[in-house]
Amino acid sequence: MIRFYFHPTPNPAKVALFLEEAGLPYETIAVDTGKGEQHKPAFRAINPNGKVPAIVDTDGPGGREARVFDSNAILLYLGDKTGKFVGAPQDRPELLSWLFFIATGLGPFSGQAVHFQYIAPEGLDYARNRYRREAERHYKVLDDHLAGRAFIVGDSYAIADMSAWGWIDRAGRVLKSEGDPLQSFPNIARWFKAIEARPAVARARAVGKEHAFKKEFDEETRRALFPSNYAAA
User: Fold this and answer.
1) What is the 3-state secondary structure (H, E, C) of 163-220?
2) What's residue 230's pLDDT?
3) Other C-beta atoms within 10 Å of 207: how many?
4) φ, ψ dihedrals at 66, nearest 5°
5) d(CA 176, CA 183)
6) Alpha-helical runs (H) found in the chain
7) pLDDT for position 178
8) Residues in domain GST C-terminal (predicted)?
9) Contact 176, 135 (CB under 8 A)
10) What is the pLDDT of residue 231?
11) Pairing mode, if any, of strands 2-6 and 26-30?
């Protein structure tokens, strides 16, 4: 059984998609990051970094319980464990490359673009421009790569596609677009439409719907999400 620690944000969404695609039995455990539940000792014992997603696999290697945190590490772990969505052996180097491209580039720069465009105080135009333009650059890299391709790696749907889907799903917010955010990225748009048509996507979107996550963005939420901003000098 997989215990899946979840909040409805892009990185947990990737893992929800894998679990639904693979048909693995799992239990969703809500972690309300707006209330600071990610900082509780019980969760920090699973992910010392205090972020979602994380999983605990009660049937890990050697039959021992295993904890895994960071969305791309979880995707790779579950893919290797099940043998699903990891592509052909000859595609492994490229699979790892694109997973790390998403983990170190597309994801973080998208997240920072959202932060500085919607959350940070006024007067930080350099930072807003920096992260927005870098997010756009990463989109262009992916768009160019997807020209003539159905999937990011090889000839089959894989964890790299799931990982990118989690963030591309928020393109409108990342790129602060009032129209079609993918208009300038036609290859991503085509790819995204094909992923969206998969039945598991609708099931992944329903994960955690039964839980009333905090929606107010107040001082409690700011302190919970950005604790380093409030650390003593």
Assistant:
1) HHHHHHCCHHHHCCCCCCCCCCCHHHHHHHHHHHCCHHHHHHHHCCCCCCCCCCCCHH
2) 87
3) 21
4) -130, 135
5) 13
6) 10-22, 41-44, 71-82, 92-101, 107-114, 125-146, 159-168, 171-174, 186-196, 199-206, 219-225
7) 83
8) 88-217
9) no
10) 74
11) parallel
Decide if 78 contacts 20 (C-beta within 8 A): no
Q: Is 175 exposed, middle or buried (0-12, 13-18, 19+ CB in 10 A)?
A: buried
- pLDDT-based confidence at 56, cuts 50/70/90? very high
What top-level class would CATH report for the domain 89-197?
mainly alpha
- The domains of the chain are located at 2-84+203-230, 89-197
State how beta strands 2-6 and 54-57 pair.
antiparallel
CA-to-CA distance for 88 and 107, rounded, in angstroms? 25
For residues 43-73, b (16+ Cβ closer than 10 Å) or e, as one string?
beebbeebbbbbbbbeebeeeeebebbbbbe
What whole-number percentage of the chain has pLDDT above 70?
Answer: 99
Could you report the per-residue pLDDT of 117-174, keeping only the tens digit for each? 999 999 999 999 999 999 999 999 999 999 999 999 999 999 999 999 999 999 999 9
pLDDT per position as a tens digit, 100-131:
999 999 999 999 999 999 999 999 999 999 99
Q: How many residues can be counted in the chain?
A: 233
Domain 2-84+203-230 has CATH 3.40.30.10: yes
For 221, residues 6+ apart whose C-beta sits below 8 A from its C-beta are 34, 35, 214
Confidence of residue 232 (pLDDT cuts 50, 70, 90): low
